[in-house]
């Protein structure tokens, strides 16, 4: 009886927490449709098919949970929009700039869904059969193609990206990733906005959320 009561309590807490969160799929769908980019409907269907809305965002560092990738993408979009207003001024943000921000913010980590039916992240199970501190592992069946390259590849199966959008997605991890030697001297407003927004979301917003959920 005690076990069933505990399980019921946990389920109730999880349901309550889920109800607090916005509908990230609806936000992403509505935002991408606003860009009026040709092929966006097909892209949205594909994102659903490959598990974009259920995928985690990392193995353990930020939003390593089901649905984490979609939540992170919305966090990056919100941060990118605020940064762009602060730097450009609300009156100076054209529809073209706004659309590019939506595209790169929501699709920069599309490659974290994996490729050819193979997810990028898989459950990490210990020899004991239980999950450890790190809930996910990188899928060893995938080659070492960086997820940013995969993001551009998957997005351009359905929509055209501008050169600036491709560059922003490829360099969104800044000096922390494989493009670090190509970036200096080639930064663009869009690439900087995406990088700063991604860093703010992953290193501030989502870390703070994790700490709060652990009672810290």
What does the model show?
- α2 (24-34) packs across α4 (68-88) and α4 crosses α8 (189-213).
- This protein is mainly alpha-helical and 216 residues long.
- The chain has a two-stranded antiparallel sheet with strand order 1-2.
- The protein has one domain (2-208).
- The chain contains eight helices and two strands, in the order αααααββααα.
- β1 and β2 (131-138) form a beta hairpin.
- It has helices spanning 2-20, 24-34, 40-49, 68-88, 95-107, 147-155, 163-170, 189-213, and strands spanning 121-125, 131-138.
- Mean pLDDT is 88; it is low at 211-216.
For the structure shown, list the relevant keywords:
6% strand; 216 residues; mainly alpha; two-stranded antiparallel ribbon; 54% helix; 8 helices
Short description:
Helix content is 54%, strand content 6%. With 216 residues, it is mainly alpha-helical.
Q: How are the SSEs ordered, and which strands pair?
A:
Blueprint: H1 2-20, H2 24-34, H3 40-49, H4 68-88, H5 95-107, E1 121-125, E2 131-138, H6 147-155, H7 163-170, H8 189-213
Antiparallel strand pairs: 1-2
Helix pairs in contact: 2-4, 2-5, 4-5, 4-8, 5-7, 5-8, 7-8
Q: What order do the SSEs take from the amino end to the carboxyl end, as H and E? A: HHHHHEEHHH
Oligomer: single chain
Report the portion of residues in β strands.
5-15%
Strand order of the largest sheet: 1-2
Largest sheet: 2 strands, antiparallel
Q: Over all CA atoms, what is the radius of gyration? A: 18 Å
Write down how many β-strands occur, each being a DSSP E stretch of 2 or more residues.
2
How does the overall form come out from the CA principal axes? globular
The poorly predicted ranges are 211-216
Would you tell me the overall average pLDDT? 88
Summed up, the helix count is 8
State the helicity in percent bands: 40-55%
Amino- and carboxy-terminal Cα gap: 31 Å
> What structural class do you assign from the helix and strand content?
mainly alpha
Q: What number of domains?
A: 1
